[in-house]
């Protein structure tokens, strides 16, 4: 019979085995992350506090789980991280040597990295030490950080002027900057405003304009109005006010200019003779090596004075053997928009009105001297967009389109008075003319499509001469011929923004008989603001203005009776012509 074993030995054996296997399990090694590696550092050199990019493998996206060492100095500012890259600020105290990354007590092999030494920025010289707008200046020095100037965080200033844009700083290096002198530069030091707030200044840079020179001109002779091309150097300027060309002390109008070439017109009023051209650029003068020969113009049959924008030109018309020759030259310039012209032949004066300056002006008929102010309004009488001008009986008359009134004053501007206003049916008055024999004042009323008249002293009531019932649509320029009892008017609806045919019309001064068309748009009539008549030669003159975009600005003439075709006297005018007057010789 078998003997039964006690059960508690089995329990003891089980406990021994459990302890054994537990001990074996604790002895197994734990799983560790793969060690980090560095494949590149960009850039491979930098200054302290610069941010660099470290790329590699097995990085931790959590910056707090990594340690980056620069030759043993830990970087505490990891800006961003992923498993393959991180951005790190170079720590203070870092020196050139190995950069390592440590994660979970595993450190990557080191990669060499260079710490750049900060060199203080200095300026040692500037070259050249003088120049002018657009010139290149080299600033030499040490410790220049090109990237700061390219980014605009460091700037260059000429004597405190506006900071140069990055585009004006050429090829910056650690040792020099090449900069372009700006248009607002002034004589004084050149300053470097550095990113850290430091301001460095150079020695004085002197702003010195290059001296102009004149080498040749062509043609070498001609009468007034002759176009001349002057060739030289350093003739280009940013402002027309900085350059002047004179011939025998008379200013010539410059029609175009470059650094090496000027185009001018021989001024009106030049006496025959030999005169050098004097070109003055920013108060530095150059004289042509030879003289220009001014020849006598052909004996003119008549002179025309006409407006071109802000200048008044004089045209000489000569007819010989059936050939018509026209020359023209500026007489006065920079006048504002000239709106009407009146000739005072007895006084050798020329009067004009300007809608830009709201003034009545006077100048010598030959263009000499400076224009003088006649009147610009006072508390009682105004000059308000004066579109029409007339002179008779020792008075100057003008039409105020801006205030719908007719006014007059003495030629010296004294005793101004209003003759007619809106209560007298003045409505957007355009041109004004005188019938001296009948002591009547005529004007075109654009606002009501009428030609009105009233007494020259402003007494009585106004009356219609012609109006809409006579198919008048947009009357502008007006001229009278008291001897023949006729008036001539430009009816130009295209100037008012509507399309009916523009016409030059004639009619009786007393308003009888209706209006007769002399010339129409197909014959060179377009947006005509002013007309002039030559009763001796039997011509009507006008300037056509380009409103449609399909025609040119031209000065034309046609027979007063409307016969034949109009003749183009001047083609391709540069600007609008709002005024014209004829002086018969």
Automatic annotation (TrEMBL):
Residues 1-25 form the signal peptide. The keyword Signal applies. It holds the Pfam family TIG. Keywords: Signal. Residues 35-116, 211-295 form the IPT/TIG domain. This is IPT/TIG domain-containing protein.
